[in-house]
Amino acid sequence: MNIRKNGILNGGSIGAIYIVTLYIISSLLNWKFGLNMQSIIMIVVGIIFGVLGGIIGVNKK
Question: DSSP secondary-structure letter at 5?
Answer without folding.
Answer: S
